[in-house]
Structures are given as structure tokens and as C-alpha cells.
Amino acid sequence: MLADAPDDGPDRSPAPDDVAGVFYTGGTTGKPKGVVYTQACLAANVLAIPSNSR
């Protein structure tokens, strides 16, 4: 499957509102809950790492 994939990557870059991931937690109620993590949130957190690691 990967051997047949093109070498030039995806057709577009992700938009800020595109989903980067979904985080789930059981919470205190025991019912699973999920929150959508956007590309914008991911980028903001990655960019904040250098200033928070001093």
C-alpha cells in the first residue's frame, strides 16, 4: 500500500480548523468524553514549547 503511494505528499496543507486528533477521557462520571483538537491548537502548543522550557 505505501509502496504505491506518491512521493510528493498530500495535495494540500491542513487548514487551521482541520482535526489534528481527538482526545478521550473517562472523566469523573465514568462516561467516555472526547474533545476535538484542531491543527490551530496543535500549532499554538508546539510554538509555545520553547518559551515554556526556559
Question: Can you describe this structure?
Answer:
The chain is of the alpha+beta class and 54 residues long. It has one domain (17-54). 26% of the residues lie in helices and 24% in strands. It is built from one helix and two strands. A two-stranded antiparallel sheet has the order 1-2. Strand 1 (19-25) and strand 2 (33-38) form a beta hairpin.
Integer tally of domains = 1
Shape: extended
Radius of gyration: 16 Å
Strand tally, please? 2
Classify the beta-strand content into a percent band: 15-25%
Unreliable segments of 5+ consecutive residues = none
Distance between the termini: 43 Å
Elements, N to C (H/E): EEH
Mean pLDDT, to the nearest integer, reads 85
Spatial sequence of strands, sheet with the most strands: 1-2
Structural class call reads: alpha+beta
Helix content: 25-40%
Oligomer: single chain
Q: What's the number of helices?
A: 1
Q: Describe the biggest sheet?
A: 2 strands, antiparallel
